[in-house]
Specification:
Number of helices: 7
Number of strands: 15
Order of helices and strands: HHHEEEEHHEHHEEEEEEEEEE
CATH architecture: Sandwich
Low-confidence stretches: 4-23, 59-86
Helix content: 25-40%
Distance between the termini: 59 Å
Mean pLDDT: 83
Radius of gyration: 22 Å
CATH topology: Immunoglobulin-like
Largest sheet: 5 strands, antiparallel
CATH superfamily: Macroglobulin (MG2) domain
Structural class: alpha+beta
Shape: globular
Length: 255
Amino acid sequence: MIDARKLKIAASLPVLIAVPLLAGKFWDDKEFTTWSDRECREMLTKSPWAYSNSFGEGSGPLLTAESSIPDDRSGAQFPQRTDSFPGEMKVIFEFRLLTAKPIRMAMARMQLLQRPNDPSVLQQAMNFVNAPPGNQIAFQITYKTSPPGSSVVHDIHNYFLSATLAEFRTDTYLSSGGSTQIPIQEYLSPGPNRSSPAFLFPRFNPEGQPLFGPEDKSISLRTRLEPTVGGKKKKYDVYIKLNPKQMKLQGQFFI
């Protein structure tokens, strides 16, 4: 005789297993104008278009918010050094594809969350999101420490302020599946209208064909960053591996 109770449990198992498979990503399931602050931050820091590399460090100096150092080029304010803190510290470099539409959606949505009742902001946001990506692929770079509050960030920012394309030309490139390396084409330092630096690469080959697409097995970014931190030259070898199959919004590839 068939146990009806066991049959009922067995019948429910396929449903339980299938539910996670049917769950989609929020960027496919929701209009970007409804994304939450948490979802925007996830898109900008941990998504198919945003990755990070972490580097362990020893203890380092803390910063105080009571005094700051103005920077003439960027207008940014940076706290000054104070005492050291014990324990391990990590330096984190975040790279996001600024030319990818999903990243621009998250950035625009965060502006809308800050000024929800301003129609001019909505129009600016829509223009930003729908602007064509152009002939280049742009990676925006941000940097921080964990725990936060280290003057290492100040030193790294100064490095990017004074850096030029020549410093990155040899060791900064994109490649797909281990094929030909595409070197950096342009470097944008932080400035009055740009709080973070950016690496720019060509989007097309001389024949006008895209250099990267959804058919690629992977797309890799490599660079070497060599800031002077606390009076000592540091070397950070960065490797980011993107999965083109995941870099899709509603079935369309974005880079």
